[in-house]
Structures are given as C-alpha cells and as structure tokens.
Design a protein that fits this description.
By secondary structure, this protein is of the alpha/beta class. Helix content is 48%, strand content 15%.
C-alpha cells in the first residue's frame, strides 16, 4: 500500500513538472491567454480535442504551433474553405508510374495523419467535410477502401472558429460539437499585453522554443490521468451538475427549464471526469475534488448546453446558466 502511495506521488509530481514546463515554454511565444494555454494542454493530456473560438488575429494558430514545438510533435494545419472535400483531409488514392513501367495505385495520406492537427476556421467547411474530420476525431482512424490508417498517439485536433456568423459559414451541429472535450473562448488582450505583443513580434528579436518533452512522455502522462481516483462525493457532484443542465431533470433549475433546449450528454460527464483528473494532477494531487470539477465545468459544458429561442431573445447564454448551476448545485 505504501509503495502504491509513493508511486502515485511520483506520478503526480512528474505530471505537474511536465505540464508546467510546457506551459512555461509556450508562454515565451504567447502573450497572456494563460487560461487558454492551460485549457489546450489539459485537453492534450486528457486525450481530448479542443475548439477555440475567437476573432481572427488573436494567436490561435500560433498557440497550436508553439505547443507542437514545445512537445516535439509533428504538426499539420488545415485551412478549411467551402470548396474543401473530405479527401483533402484524410487523403486519397493516386495513380503513379512504377519504376519498371506501368502504373501503380498508392494511397497518399492527408494532413489529418499527424499528432497535432490545427483545423483552422472549421465552420467554413461544408457539413460533409466537417463530418469526415469529426469521424477521425472519434474513431482515431481513417478508412479508405480496404485500407485503415490509425492515427499516431498522442493525437489531438485543435479546431478554431469565428464567433461571428458570416455568409459562407456552416455552424457545427450539436452532435459534432459534443466530440470536443473543451470549448475555449479566446478573448482580446489587455492594454499591458498589447505592449508585450508589440515588443515580442515587431522587434528584431526572435523567440526560439525548445522541446521540453516528447510523445512517449505524453502518452505516459495520459495513462497517469486515467489512474487518478475519483471519490464518490466528487463523482456524485459531477453527475448532479450534468443532470442539472437537462431540462425536466430532478436537479434542473427554473432557469434551465425555461432556457435550455438540450442539456449535456453522458459524454459531458466523461469530459468532466477526465479534465478534473488533469486539474488535480496539475495541482500536485492524486485525487479529484469538487473544486477540480468546478474549475473545468464551463469549458466542458458550454458547448453541450443548447439554449432555446426564449434564451436567445433574453440574451441568456449557456455560460450564464452554467455559472448559476455552479452556485446552486450542492457539492
């Protein structure tokens, strides 16, 4: 028993060290956005995908490329457009000339076959192309004809979208939004951060990021996350919180019953558990608390709660409702 406790302490300490090293290295390039950086790293460690929402120019692409350099993983970027086809993502079979003459059919892998994939402006692609990407996210593999390609591990899709509805955009359906562990809001910098951005990006100095970990260590840390125990009190609180987002449930508030069309699914409770385990490890603990669940609840649930027309007319958002539930649902 003592050996198991010591091993847990060592794992928690190593996890906290690696997480902190990556965050510090990425922070050399990215000004501010500490919460977003921590959220993306949490999703990476938990084995989930993340949706980044914000206007253009806030550094979302730079964030993902910086993480790829800090963790020494292959990185690919897919710029989504309305004319993009599924084959542009997953790859296609091509006819090429063989050395001895004749032709041979070979499969050319698409940019999705990578460890870190940036799906830039995912809401600009058509639903057919979006569904091809999200199938890969769920199954962790691509099937083309009789050929099946497994994604390398760790595998993480980080998608971006513009919050402003524009012509030529296709909002992700609820079932596809549910595939993302987190939805993170990337906001504008503060006045002080603008000064730092100018100094860092318009001077002659170049920021060089060095790898602080690798794929083997990340896969090991993902296994550690799964081993973190969840006490019954924390598990019960997470269940009540998810059920409280579902209209008509025993824990739903009047505000939820009035304003919510669809609540969080069982995938929401899975996301809460995994993200809370990472939160505990980052804090140096090998056990989940209710505070860990509260810390990740907004990022896990905001895209899984669909508000109705009454809420839209009253300017009530999913964030508002979740914030209220965090105070009303008893731990």
């Amino acid at each position: 028993m003592h050996d198991m406790v010591e091993a847990a302490r060592r794992d928690a300490a190593e996890f906290k060290q690696i997480f902190g090293d990556i965050r510090a290295e990425v922070g050399k390039m990215i000004v501010g956005q500490e919460g977003v950086i921590a959220g993306v790293l949490t999703a990476l460690m938990a084995g989930g995908h993340v949706l980044l929402e914000g206007v253009p120019g806030l550094g979302k692409t730079m964030l993902v490329s910086s993480i790829s350099r800090a963790v020494h993983l292959p990185f690919s970027r897919i710029q989504f457009t309305p004319d993009m086809m599924p084959a542009d993502i997953i790859g296609t079979s091509m006819l090429s000339e063989a050395e001895g003459g004749g032709h041979v059919l070979s499969f050319q892998e698409g940019p999705i076959v990578s460890n870190l994939v940036l799906a830039d402006e995912i809401n600009r692609a058509t639903p057919k192309t979006q569904s091809a990407l999200l199938e890969v996210m769920q199954e962790r593999q691509v099937t083309v004809g009789r050929r099946t390609i497994r994604m390398p591990e760790p595998f993480c899709v980080m998608a971006t979208q513009n919050p402003v509805d524009q012509e030529g955009t296709y909002p992700l359906p609820e079932a596809q939004l549910d595939r993302f562990l987190f939805k993170l809001i990337v906001g504008y910098p503060t006045e002080a951060e603008y000064h730092a951005i100018i100094d860092r990006t318009t001077s002659g100095e170049q920021v060089v990021l060095n790898p602080v970990t690798d794929a083997e260590a990340l896969n090991r840390m993902r296994a550690v996350v799964r081993q973190v125990p969840v006490p019954d009190v924390a598990k019960a609180y997470a269940i009540r919180l998810v059920m409280a987002t579902q209209p008509g449930s025993d824990y739903a508030t009047d505000a939820v019953n009035r304003n919510v069309a669809l609540g969080a699914s069982p995938r929401g409770i899975q996301g809460l558990m995994l993200a809370a385990k990472v939160q505990a490890l980052v804090d140096g603990r090998f056990s989940v608390s209710t505070d860990d669940i509260k810390a990740v609840a907004l990022s896990v649930l905001r895209h899984r709660v669909v508000v109705n027309f009454h809420a839209q007319a009253s300017n009530v958002t999913a964030d508002d409702l979740i914030a209220e539930l965090l105070t009303s649902v008893r731990a």
